[in-house]
Write a structure and sequence with these properties.
It is built from 19 helices and four strands. It is mainly alpha-helical and 354 residues long.
Length: 354
């Protein structure tokens, strides 16, 4: 039983497509690049992911950065040889968002000092570093021609930190400069949704969607994809996926891994299946989130609640349970009971309804 638990905590999953809109090659879901076996294939996939990640790094949809190097004799060098240390680290990582983090660091060294501050903030947000994003924006001087971009990034960073008051102020400030600014509108709608003002949230969503199909098989490419989606909202995604097959959640998770709200919603979706296997998977996700984002109260409280509820988990993760208990005390997190998810294991698990 312990082995089964640890397999889930360590991320061992069924072999499913990790990223269906990857149009050149694709790893199996939850596998490291080493699973490709052939060294040339691994090297090629490294170059593919660097090119695929470039547009996210510069926050420019469709951006095509020409990344090439030559030796002293003018012969081309492979990217895996130029970035050897990063490549060696990257090829063993199973998680796509974690592989992106490694590639982001490559770009930091190449061009980090040349990025606009709002783009650098977006890079940090995507990499689950909301505090760094806020610090960058706080220290920056906002140019008049891009002020709505800065405001939207500020709002997004505050939102993932759970500071909705500042988030809504910055989103509205961005819209005061440009009422049609897409990112500011999406973030404002997301804030409305998580604060239970669904009417105003849906009004904005519907205006952006303009009748676009919300069929499950086209949600990723048409709605939520960084490269081609028209409404990149982790909040709308988690709402639309409540009754979706798990493989759809898996595909879209790689787009919104920066969002604690989406990741919590995915965990609740798994808990609602009311089987021990899915409780294990949900616990793995929510504990990982609590460790990465200890400021996100909902994840911390619910990771602790699962350990309290499922005895076999509580006994195997005693250190994690103590850490979560202390964090709840230190941060004065308040456990509320007005929004709960029922499981078949006895106790309630708190859920902020989004």
């Amino acid at each position: 039983m312990l082995k089964k638990i640890m397999d889930f905590i360590l991320g061992k999953k069924e072999n499913k497509p990790e990223n269906s809109h990857c149009d050149e090659m694709c790893l199996l879901y939850g596998e490291s690049p080493l699973s490709l076996k052939d060294e040339k294939a691994i090297s090629k996939y490294f170059e593919f992911e660097i090119k695929k990640t470039a547009s996210r790094y510069v926050s420019g949809r469709g951006a095509n950065l020409n990344i090439s190097f030559k030796d002293a004799f003018g012969e081309p060098l492979s990217l895996c040889s130029v970035f050897h240390d990063a490549f060696e680290q990257w090829k063993e990582v199973k998680s796509l968002p974690d592989r992106r983090s490694i590639i982001f660091e490559i770009f930091d060294n190449l061009m980090g000092d040349k990025l606009d501050d709002w783009r650098l903030a977006e890079r940090y947000i995507e990499d689950r570093r909301g505090l760094d994003a806020i610090e960058i924006l706080t220290l920056s001087s906002i140019p008049k021609e891009e002020r709505e971009e800065y405001c939207a990034s500020y709002a997004k960073a505050f939102m993932i930190m759970g500071d909705y008051k500042n988030a809504v102020e910055w989103a509205k400030k961005g819209l005061s400069y440009n009422s049609k600014h897409l990112r500011s509108n999406i973030i404002l709608a997301d804030i409305y949704h998580v604060t239970n003002d669904h009417t105003r949230a849906h009004k904005i969503y519907n205006k952006i969607l303009k009748g676009q199909s919300l069929e499950l098989n086209c949600l990723l490419e048409n709605i939520f994809s960084f490269d081609s989606g028209i409404l990149r909202s982790p909040i709308l995604a988690s709402s639309l996926l409540r009754n979706a097959p798990e493989e759809i959640w898996e595909k879209i998770e790689t787009e919104f891994y920066y969002s604690p709200h989406f990741r919590c919603s995915y965990a609740y979706y798994l808990l609602n299946k009311n089987s021990f296997e899915y409780v294990l998977k949900a616990f793995a996700k929510i504990l990982t989130l609590a460790k990465e984002m200890p400021w996100f109260q909902e994840a911390v409280i619910n990771a602790h609640a699962i350990l309290e509820q499922v005895d076999i988990l509580g006994s195997q993760f005693e250190e994690e349970k103590k850490w979560l208990q202390q964090l709840i005390i230190d941060q004065k997190y308040e456990i509320k009971n007005n929004h709960t998810i029922k499981t078949s294991f006895g106790k309630n698990i708190e859920n902020i309804d989004i």
